[in-house]
Amino acid sequence: MFSKQAVRLLRTYWATAQLLAEELSCLFDEDVPLAHAAPITLTVQNQQAPLAVKGFTLGDSVISFGGGSGEDLGSLILTAGGLAYRDADGNLQVPAPRTNGNLSPAAGGTGGGFVGKVVSGSGSSYQVDLYENGPGNSATRRVSATQLQIDSAATIPAGTWALVAEVDRAFFIQVPVWLA
Question: Which CATH class is domain 114-174?
């Protein structure tokens, strides 16, 4: 963690506590950047974030990336919408809004409608292939979904298109003409 500075602690004797304090002060000096060449593992304890990055303002670089030859590969920048990426050419790449699937808002939000095709099921429980890139493209994933407003004895035939919504990681479908 202290890179080449750690060798300063190999000394086994300091004449006074003051000399040890000065040595430690030099190790933790803000002018000496910390460097670590081995992988770092962060583990969550007590449900607290394992890494806190503080003191930044909008537009600041939070993390810089460099290649093996020392070339600049870009950096993460703090923006009003969250983190964005600035490439080595200085172009700011702003990601789409945070999602917990492909189209739904993160953290307990609602929304993110798309089309799906019923694969199997009965009553209100179905397996549905999602077409998150539109019905003219391939299915992107298969999910378990609940059909809203259907007679418990009814069954939606496989191959029937439905409107799909994701709410808090649960999927709901509504076949437009299948209302009870």
Answer: mainly beta
